[in-house]
Amino acid sequence: MTSRPAAFATFAAAFVGAAVIANRLAGKPVPFLRWSVIRFALGARRLLGEGQVGDGREEALAAHVTATARRGDIDDVIRAIDDFAHTRSFLMNVGDEKGEILDAAVRRARPALLLELGTYCGYSALRMARVMPPDATICTVEINPANEAIARGIWEHAGVGERITSVVGSIGDGGTTVARLRDEYGIDTGTVDFVFIDHLKSAYLPDLLRIVDEGWLHPGSVVVADNVRFPGAPDYLAHMRAEEGGRWRSTDHRTHVEYQRVLRDLVLESEYQG
Asked: Could you confirm whether the keyword Transferase appears in this record (predicted)?
């Protein structure tokens, strides 16, 4: 089994190498070959361990949103985040292209309760809040308290803070966060209609299995997973492939890594059959 440091180094090398190759093939600079992207790749160990690159881009994003987006306008806040990612610093949220896939999945599911694993700076929760039914709520789990605080500030600026609950923790922390979600936030048997997974890729499958074991899903619950191809969640994908036609029915959305159009990615949308 590949060690965690080796996996981080491989991810960083692959990201930078792919950027250089794509730039050469394109014959001109491509959007993601920027210093902020290279810093992102070189900071992969800290990023995947702590949830931040360490260069202050998340705090800069919060300041950018406050300075450039109209208060109470969720569309303008989403626009400001995308603008920051395209022109200032690369962000590891779902992004604008894949965000439309997430939007469509939420519209189809019409969920009352959404569970998100991986809040980061709150962008995907904003997108889901914008298209979910008026009486729906989101509960999102984030391991990094600084990210969670930034996300809450951004949601408040967008005017949707009351519809999104954030919890600092991890589904894989030995049961502490699972107990809090159940006891404090009302997530219980058959209550979760929609799950969006976009956190540590090696945690995708164990966290999904824990959610299933807890009985939180019901037939018809939808699970959407980002970055299944790049940087990749191979065990999660293999599990869903093996369960196809049984407990799960999945749809592949072939797309691109966030905020560029060269590196390919896969968003997997899966419906739980019970």
From this structure: yes
